[in-house]
Amino acid sequence: MSRIHVSTTINGDTAEFLCEPEQTLLDVVRDELHLTGSKEGCGTGDCGACSVMVDGRLVCACLVLGAEAEGRSIETIEGMAQGDKLHPLQEMFLDHAALQCGICTPGFLVAAKALLDRNTDPTETEVRYWLAGNLCRCTGYDKIVRAVLDTAAEMRGS
Ligand code: FES
Ligand code: FES
Question: Are 89 and 112 in contact (CB under 8 A)?
Answer without folding.
Answer: yes
